[in-house]
Amino acid sequence: MTVPNGHRLAATDDAGVTTADQWCEALAEHAVRTIALDVGRLVVVAPHPDDEVLGLGATMAARSAARSTSRYPDSPHLPDSSGVADSLGSPDPLDVVVCVSDGSASHPGEVAPEVMRGRRQAECEDGARELGIGLRMLDLPDGGLNAADVDAALHPVLDELAPATVAVTWSGDGHPDHHVCAESVQRWIAAREGATLLEFPVWMWHWARPGDPDVPWERLRRVSMPRSESTAAGGSRTEDMTADAFAHKRRALAAHASQLASQSDAPDATVILPPAVVERFFLGDEWVFTP
Ligand SMILES: [Zn+2]
């Protein structure tokens, strides 16, 4: 399989090419258009546990808070994944993350896959709870997802959840599993009327430079954070809500502890998401490519 930009990701060192500050500066200079997500369920397809938080964690937290405020105006309590079944068919359905692989291959040679599988499932559940969203785990073995297996596991779940919008990792992100999942969602969308496809970058922030010719900048959009009805009037309150959504994202990412710290005492132990990488996902907004 040829993976778009796979050679770029493979050739990039652990620190990455562009810092979070440099991205902030570049994105501020370019008038990136804003996109508001459709009313109705958002399903975020994550090839690995944590991709959903990195890509759209704040957006999902903000939508969850807005939904919660409008449905339960006196309650700060957010719904959790147990509400997915109840909200099927509701005009105000819960957003759902569909995690495709079990994440068991993140530390080959350091942590046994069966140990990592359990660890990452628990982390993904904690992260989803923090964001106030539903979670489905498809549990395909991590490392080398293929189109037939992903289609067979993912498409029936998308049929059932009937999303208005499906967001998936960008097909050009450079990671083979991100590419396979994006193509699978593209096939599901192509066979249906009315569902919107969005693709969010994860590893692009790591290997690309601002203006990079391998990135379709003209299709990049800043995701507009939803506002709850009670706070929509005041600008400062809206800022508060965005800050609050990013605080939920920060805590949801902290739930994925196995990716943030070394999992063994080996001197060259892997840290998948060191601080410099994490900060690229806290640029003050979240970002998607439109078709
Ligand atoms: Zn991933």
TrEMBL record:
Species assigned in the record: Corynebacterium freneyi
| Swiss-Prot/TrEMBL keywords | Zinc
Q: Which domain of life is it from?
A: Bacteria
The protein's matches in SUPFAM superfamilies, at most eight in alphabetical order, are given as: LmbE-like
The protein's matches in PANTHER family, at most eight in alphabetical order, are given as:
BLR3841 PROTEIN, N-ACETYLGLUCOSAMINYL-PHOSPHATIDYLINOSITOL DE-N-ACETYLASE-RELATED
Q: Where is this region: Disordered?
A: 67-87
Q: What is this protein called?
A: LmbE family N-acetylglucosaminyl deacetylase
Stored Pfam families: PIG-L (PF02585)
- Where along the sequence do coiled-coil regions lie? none
